[in-house]
Records
---
Amino acid sequence: MTVANNFALQQNKAQLAAEWINSYAIKNNRNLELELEGYFLHTTNFGDFEVVSWKGDWAAARKMMIVASRKLNIKVVDSGYHAKGHLLSSLLGISREFAKVYSGGSIIGHLELTTKSGKWVVKGEKLL
């Protein structure tokens, strides 16, 4: 069972979205449980997001975030993407990930994330 904190929900709708995702997962027999982490990703182009931790199935988590974006008409961040060839920096503890930003179920941009004091922060943004 995977445990990670590489998703984020639109700040002003995060509580509602987390509750909806958890109830939808139970109702549809999906192995997924979300919890709000209590800290935020601040972006210039997309607004603010509350980071969520989750446990369960990776594929279900990714799919549920996109479904929530579409059904609840909210923005979500789906990270966990890495650039090819950066295995050495990963082994040295230099954390850098890329993320997709969805709104209404469609990709609207990309983020580059890094860690600072154990929390994700936005290093770069790109609108599509």
---
Amino acid sequence: MTVLSGRFVNQAAAFYALRAEAEKIGVALLPKETDVIREARDVRLAHYFRPAIAARIVDALGEDDTVLVLFPSRLTAFPAFPPEDSALRLLGRFAGVLDEGA
């Protein structure tokens, strides 16, 4: 899964920024293709990642207050996403589990 971060006033603003960046490269982003996390990061990240990976993600946040987990989709196929001038910062691509039945 691709993990991004940034500083946003709320989850809606983070999703809007992500959607706007996706539209710039011609990709329509669906809400079900991402999880925007502002609170309870450790708990929410544990839904997707092993504890060591979740800890690495939290450590990498720095001053950012929002984590965006992108599930495999057309958008995650773009290696240069997000662009350098984006409000979003790439934290990395991590092995995780997506439980689609939940």
---
Amino acid sequence: MEFKDTLKYLRTEKGLTQKELADAVHFSLSTINKWENGKKLPGYEALRILAKFFEVDGNEILNL
């Protein structure tokens, strides 16, 4: 699974919309949308924030 698919899976498992996730992790809705559509990848700090929010290892989000 690619990052975009993993992010969407984690988000939907928590029952969140893209807007709710954006608000929770303090990123723009546009950024979340670009990540989920595979148009952009997050940087290290963003990955750290996402991993903490979803309570998963950072490598799990990247599927390493």
---
Amino acid sequence: MFSKKIVFGMIAFVVAMLAFGYSSLDDRTAADEMLSADADHLITLEEGIQYTARFRATMEPGERVGGFFGRDMLETILADEEAVGVRYYYALDKDGNPTLVLVGSDKFGHDIVDGPIAQKSLPCPPWCSLESSVLSSDIVVQ
């Protein structure tokens, strides 16, 4: 489970975004480029390995490192004609385990809250890809 410090940090970040900058997303060129259906969010495998290794270095053994959402759920969120992408929010489930909440987002960066919202992912562990290079345990964090 995330430490209280990490959870409070995530909450503070979301609150700060809502209070201080979120409404100005329409005016930021960089954000406009990312708030589109064809934005380039690709990274290399090495970057993915490093990102996940840094995260796992902050965790206790056996804590959740990810989850799985099926294509149908993602397509259901994206089926809204206003949706250009999916926003995720860090969250804790009713048992206090880390999870994500997914919601559609429009071209202005606004959540589409009258559409489908997802959370019920298959957690990892136990439902992890056993062959995933992204979760390699012998990588030195840079």
